[in-house]
């Protein structure tokens, strides 16, 4: 019953639209698809989308783990407020975030004005895109790692200390390997979210073809040109790459879960 | 390695956990810290390990002041109640961890670490499980791994915090005997914390009875069981019965009746303590405690009767032979074989 419902639901919400996507792009034929895929503008957009999403997810993994650690282990006034702020990127319309970030990082913005003389341009470059993606991806890492961290007993750290491990060895050999599956999940979620992000990016990106144009924007541009087949072709390619990456991450997850016996 | 705790006081956020505790542990001894929860026994163990630092006082390993050293430098083997194994490491990697994290100039070669780890696993009877992960082991097996891991660093002292607390009764008994064997073979100076008096009495060379952050008594199992030096120890170890009494000219009285017991206390009110099973029944009514049976029940090989003591209006329990004819409302007179009188609290 529940299984049947789940399958029907997934088909309705996920599978049928995706099949429609494949159907639509198939109208181009293999040659047409290949033509769209190898078009330099498409290639650049894909490279920018996946590249910035990857870098943003990596940065989120590092700082997200630190933020989660502070929230789990430290008791300080305002901890609950910080904890709530982490969720803000979930709730905030991403366009608002994009506009806010642009105004801060633009040449005359609060931060941009100090970076500009140093020759660092953030707004309207891939760096700006990355910053926007870091913003939207942060809660994914924090919220997946946090509950697992809460389960780590201080005893494990104390055991490492009595065995002679210094703090660095305890973190790198005991704590982080134990968190690795959760960190990987957080990375996958933040990455997937960043690849599909549109709202916050288009404001800060500047959207220069070949330089700071992301794939989702290119899809919208093709749609506006009534090139539906072209749009769905790019979408299908993105889908394929995303699926492959998430699949690999899932394989790693399953392997480590088997190894460490989580859930027992 | 001798361990000496000298005048240690510990406060947590102004809340005192230990008051002025001193203790000497001889090299090769197996010592139990026994007490109810909140007695400070775990705090004392953690202070010896260096996981806590004393508010006042010092801890010596031999002649060396260990208080100045960090946990890492103290080289103690610590076994936690919930094992605290590293779950992403195999059993053999857990055991070898302490050797692997040593600085390169004292770290044994990889093969050597492997050899020593499997030797230890052999020693704790877990050979064949080297490649398993902690999640794939039973509780008893995990605790053996934890012990092997602690012994791998050749610790100066072995400290165990309620090592059998999380295990079921049968495994606990097995591991208890096994730990004693291990200790007799390795002769590590060992301190373990427990709230289980059977465990402490059966396993330890000496028992340290603790209550409310202080040491009540230190002695061999026989000493603490047969000669408790405080009402707390009487009550906490084994069973005890107590009766309010009066001391006059060095003898014990209830009301207008002498019990024929000598007490080494000044005249005045006191509390008589004795073991319910350590009494002799007597005939007559002089020089004894007499009472009426108000309840009786069978406990194992003996019978427990509850007496209303004449002249004291107090109920106490004593143990008698199972085939003793006493029934409810019949009179019984007895004299404790061993007893002590303490001040009334």
UniProtKB/TrEMBL annotation, chain B:
SMART domains: AAA (SM00382). InterPro entries: AAA+_ATPase, ABC_SmlMolc_Importer, ABC_transporter-like_ATP-bd, ABC_transporter-like_CS, Mo/tungstate-bd_C_term_dom, P-loop_NTPase, Sulph_transpt1, TOBE-like. Keywords: ATP-binding, Cell membrane, Membrane, Nucleotide-binding, Sulfate transport, Translocase, Transport. The keyword Ribosomal protein does not apply. GO terms for molecular function: ABC-type sulfate transporter activity; ATP binding; ATP hydrolysis activity. Coiled coil: none annotated. GO terms for cellular component: ATP-binding cassette (ABC) transporter complex. It comes from the Bacteria. Residues 3-237 form the ABC transporter domain. PANTHER family: SPERMIDINE/PUTRESCINE IMPORT ATP-BINDING PROTEIN POTA, SPERMIDINE_PUTRESCINE IMPORT ATP-BINDING PROTEIN POTA. Belongs to the ABC transporter superfamily. This is Sulfate/molybdate ABC transporter ATP-binding protein. It comes from Phyllobacterium pellucidum.
